[in-house]
Amino acid sequence: MPDVPERPEDGVSRVLCFVAHPDDIDFGAAGTVAQWTAAGVVVEYCIMTDGDAGGFSDEHRPDIVDRRRQEQRAAARLVGVETVHFLGYRDGYLEPSLELVAGVVELIRSVRPHIVLSMHPERNWERIQKSHPDHLACGEAVTRAIYPAVENPYAFPDLAARGLDAYRVPWLWFFGGPTQLENHFVDVTDHVEDKMRALRFHASQHPDLERMDNTVRAFLTANAQRGGLAADRSAEVFQVVPVNTEATIAGF
């Protein structure tokens, strides 16, 4: 695996995050997002499914989609994200279809981010809950879009005809994948409380908020220890993939 610069986020001003469900981004990367927006980076979210299969209460069923969108928008605002795109696919039925890939290509070409952040396309056997089939489909669709479709001027010519020209994404960041592929630990100690407050907006998903809070904090501490940070630190962890950087060769 290529070495990753100590701070691959340096010089970044735009980030686009893709996840399968409302709340996925807050579990995986809200601390990092809060750190980026505090530094002036513009971050946008894209939520692929409508989240209708989530929740734990029958009382929420009639309005679960609207409820989850409201929860996600509120959580996003708390960490400095104003734009949230909802693709509206059915929760539990997501596939890396040509239609989904085309939608990802369209959004990336429109936003033209320096970092695309996504759920991982590979299953984590150590904790399979990270690898919901929708998560894997999200990661696979984003991966297929990143290379070669987004940067191929002859792919999806209808997009080019609408002014959405080919674009080379510099960096692809994954979260939630196999532990052995992790290569970048972000110290989010200063933004842990932002992350936890963002997660609490997703009340429709958490029958025991205190347990959720304690569990997430423990994961953040364990991440920091695994990444060699000091004992009192918290971290989010990623696999950072250089797509079009000095470490890569265009067209290969």
From TrEMBL:
Keywords: Zinc. It holds the Pfam family PIG-L. Gene3D superfamilies: LmbE-like (3.40.50.10320). The keyword Zinc applies. InterPro entries: GlcNAc_PI_deacetylase-related, LmbE-like_dom_sf. PANTHER family: LMBE FAMILY PROTEIN, N-ACETYLGLUCOSAMINYL-PHOSPHATIDYLINOSITOL DE-N-ACETYLASE-RELATED. This is PIG-L family deacetylase. The lineage of its organism: Bacteria, Bacillati, Actinomycetota, Actinomycetes, Micrococcales.
